Amino acid sequence: MLTENGPPKFPDGPFPRSQDSNRCFSKAYCYRRLTNGELVERDWLMFSHKANKVYCFACKIFGGEKNSNSRFVKGYGNWRCLSSRLKQHETGPNHTDAYLAWKELET
Hints:
The chain is of the alpha+beta class and about 110 residues long. The chain is about 35% helix and about 15% strand. It has five helices and four strands; from the N terminus they run αββββαααα. The strands form two sheets. A two-stranded antiparallel ribbon has the order 1-2. A two-stranded antiparallel ribbon has the order 3-4. The longest helix is centred in the C-terminal third of the chain and has 14 residues. About 20% of the residues are buried. It comes from Culter alburnus (Topmouth culter). This is TTF-type domain-containing protein.
């Protein structure tokens, strides 16, 4: 069921602000703009209101031991650096392997 349905869809907000920087998550992070200008949904990204952090669905479920210490498996909540960390994560080999395993099982 997890692979068929994927992660829960993002709520509309409002999102809680972090106490240290007064920043918050934005739904704009749910999308990635490709070099050709196309906007693609990050279907692997999950948000927890309770923890006020984002997670990688693919790495949590299919990452195995090599992803167990990933910041997106444990939860990431530094909104100031999120854009660069998302790009870094989604282009990494461990995420790519986990994402492909998820999509292969899904089909």
